[in-house]
Structures are given as C-alpha cells and as structure tokens.
Write a structure and sequence with these properties.
By secondary structure, the chain is an alpha+beta fold. It contains 1 helix and 4 strands, in the order H-E-E-E-E. InterPro entries: PilX/PilW_C, PilX_N_dom.
C-alpha cells in the first residue's frame, strides 16, 4: 500500500477558493449594475420633471389655460413690465413670483443665485402649475420627490437692421426637476419668444 499524501484535498480546496472568488466578484458586478441603472432611472425622472417645468413656463408666458391664475399679460415682445430691477420676485401669493431682473453685463447670471430648493412663502421660483393650474404628482415611489420649479428672465435682442431702441424681448427659462431622491436634480434652460398675436 502506498502512503496517502492528501494532494487531491489541497487541489479541491484551491478550486473551492477560486469558485468563491468568482462568485463574489460576479455578485459585486451585479450589485454595481443595479445601482447604476437605479441612478440612471432617477436622473431620467428628474430630467422629465425639468422638461415638464419648461413647458409649464412656456404656457405661463404664452397663455395659461386657467384664466383665473393667468399672468400672460405681463409678458410682451416689446417691454419688460413686471420684472424687477434686480434679483427675482418672491412670495407664493405674488403674481410676479419667479420673474427675475434682466442680466447685467459682466455680472453673475440671476439664475445662478436663485435657491430653487426653497419652498417657503419667501421662495422666488415658481412651483409647477402655480399659474397654469396644471397638476404634477410627486412624493413617493417612482414619482419625483417634489414638484419642479422655474424662473423667467427677460433678454433683449436686436436683429440686424432693427432699431436698438425697439429690441425684441426673449425669455430665458431656467427649470429644475427632482428625481425620486431629493439629491437628484437636473437643471435645464431654454430661450422662448412669445408668439405674435
């Protein structure tokens, strides 16, 4: 009889260690992929909320479907009535809420200093539906954590051959949307010109 040396036991243990390491790394890869897809979905929810806020602001400028809340008369292609000289109008009950001063040359843009997270009575950004009567579900589950918000700034533009005394007024809309987590935020901007009647 030959003496047993136990080589097969060592080989079996090494194979089990290799299989354990492969299983652990596969589980980690699967968890990372799931986290990545969850974060991507959260960002997509925030992006869609910000896009909805841009459309709500365009309706606010053009013509609100809710005539009782409409402030479309404040937006004109010739003047900037209702816009402050500096900063942004605040106050939830204020009809001029979220209307911000025209940008000054070489100054920080007004939208960069607005606290879009403020939902108090002194907020200076407009919550979705404030002037259009539109509703937006938010809160729990796959919904955004809170309603999107926006501000509007007037911008003067002079076309070639147009009198500098009668510039065309465009509006820069800055909107923020939130994901399912409050920390997930997407900010979008667009320029909009009110249609001629």
């Amino acid at each position: 009889m030959h003496a047993q040396r136990g080589v097969s036991l060592i080989v079996s243990l090494l194979m089990l260690i290799v299989i354990l390491l492969l299983g652990t790394s596969a589980a980690q890869i699967a968890l990372q992929a799931e986290k990545g897809s969850r974060n991507d979905r959260d960002r997509q929810v925030a992006l869609q909320a910000a896009e909805a806020a841009l459309m709500d602001a365009e309706m606010d400028i053009e013509h609100s479907p809710d005539s009782a809340r409409s402030r479309s008369h404040l937006f004109s292609s010739e003047d900037m009535q209702g816009f402050p000289e500096s900063g942004c109008n605040a106050g939830i009950g204020n009809i001029r809420l979220g209307l911000c001063a025209p940008p000054l040359p070489d100054a920080e843009p007004v939208w960069a200093s607005v606290n879009f997270l403020d939902e108090s009575g002194n907020a200076n950004s407009v919550p979705y539906g404030q002037f259009t009567g539109a509703s937006f579900q938010s809160g729990a589950g796959p919904l955004p954590a809170r309603r999107p918000r926006y501000i509007i700034e007037p911008l003067k533009f002079t076309y070639k051959g147009q009198s500098a005394e009668m510039p065309t007024v465009f509006y820069r809309i800055t909107a923020i949307g939130f994901g399912m987590r409050d920390e997930t935020q997407v900010v979008l901007q667009t320029h909009y010109r009110k249609g001629e009647k």
